[in-house]
Design a protein that fits this description.
The chain is of the alpha/beta class and 334 residues long. Helices cover 45% and strands 18% of the residues. The structure holds 6-O-phosphono-beta-D-fructofuranose. The site of 6-O-phosphono-beta-D-fructofuranose has 10 residues, from loops.
């Protein structure tokens, strides 16, 4: 019989992501409804070590579901990465009678949660990152908002790029993953999409693409470059020198992490937050919640951290085919 958990805490860790507030709100309200007490820990694991926490009631999360960022604030903690930090964190939680913890963050945060679980804290993790780079899930809280924010910004840059007949290189976030770049690149009709999973660093191929595109009457060229490749400004200089086409780099940066969450992020985060409270209530601990194959599921943390994620090759092939079809048709016609 799993041990009944009476008091839990919730924290957000790592980079913030739109939808985290919906997740916090659902954890708090579902857990209270199940008869548990809930503590909010501010500023992630660092806040835990500094004992920055408060008791939460249903009103603590009022008026938050539509807000970007995280009402609990977030941080990255070097101290907590050490074993001594994890031990201290677990002792603080035990001292306050907290038996379970919901961690909302990326897979770096999961490693911290795994460390706490070794000191008898029951943990449940939710995928909170705009990067979509967590293997056990095809959805992460914040990705949908981030790609829509980036897409709107790219559309705007595209307007001016078109007026000035320029090449625009737009760099999007994603750390070492290319999901934001690929989705936004396809959705904005980019001519080239450079992602760490696929890019072969053959800049000459891009230059040739620009030259051939101009021959068939294209007057501007949009390149979406993933943060994991970077160097957009120097790339713009080289492309301008090699093609004679004016080139400009735009790095979208942190605006991609802000803003009011989309309906999908609010909805999925709400379901996942409630699911986390349900797991703890059932005494089902050391789990990571994901959304795979159309369903919300939970995995053992070790299992989740060992899983590999591959960006679907077909998506990338389609993006290449769509952006090169006019040139290819021109070649065939000749
Ligand atoms: O993980 C989300 C993310 O925004 C990445 O896309 C980016 O590489 C990183 O966080 C930036 O982190 P920081 O807020 O520490 O600069």
């Amino acid at each position: 019989m799993p041990k009944k958990i009476n008091k839990i805490a919730v924290l957000t860790s790592g980079g913030d992501a739109p939808g985290m507030n919906a997740a916090i709100r659902a954890v708090v309200r579902r857990a209270l409804g199940l008869g548990m007490k809930v503590v909010g820990i501010e500023k992630g694991y660092q806040g835990l070590l500094n004992e920055e926490m408060y008791d939460m009631d249903a009103r603590s999360v009022a008026d938050s579901i539509h807000r970007g960022g995280t009402i609990l604030r977030t941080a990255r903690s070097a101290e907590f990465k050490e074993e001594a930090g994890k031990k201290k964190g677990a002792e603080i939680l035990k001292k306050r009678g907290i038996e379970g913890l919901v961690v909302i963050g990326g897979d770096g945060s999961y490693k911290g949660a795994l460390g706490l679980s070794k000191h008898d804290i029951g943990v449940v993790c939710l995928p909170g990152t705009i990067d979509l780079d967590i293997a056990c899930t095809d959805y992460t809280i914040g990705f949908d908002t981030a790609i829509n924010t980036a897409m709107e910004a790219i559309d705007k840059v595209r307007d001016t790029s078109s007026s000035h007949e320029r090449c625009s290189i737009i760099e999007v976030m994603g750390r070492n993953a290319g999901y934001i770049a690929l989705w936004c690149g396809v959705a904005t009709g980019a001519e080239d999409i450079l992602i760490p999973e696929k890019y072969d660093y053959n800049e000459q191929e891009i230059i040739n693409h620009i030259i051939e595109s101009r021959k068939i009457g294209k007057t501007h060229h949009l390149i979406i470059n993933a943060e994991g490749i970077g160097h957009s400004t120097s790339m713009a200089r080289r492309i301008e020198a090699a093609t004679g086409m004016e080139a400009r780099a735009t790095i979208l940066g942190y605006m991609q992490r802000g803003g009011s969450p989309t309906c999908k992020d609010r909805f999925y985060a709400s379901i996942m937050g409630a699911y986390a409270a349900d797991l703890l209530n059932e005494g089902k601990i050391n789990r990571v919640i994901g959304h795979l194959g159309g369903d919300f599921k939970d995995f053992d943390i070790d299992e989740a951290l060992a899983m590999q994620k591959d960006l679907p090759d077909y998506y990338y092939q389609v993006s290449r085919a769509l952006s090169r079809s006019a040139i290819n048709a021109n070649r065939v016609a000749k």
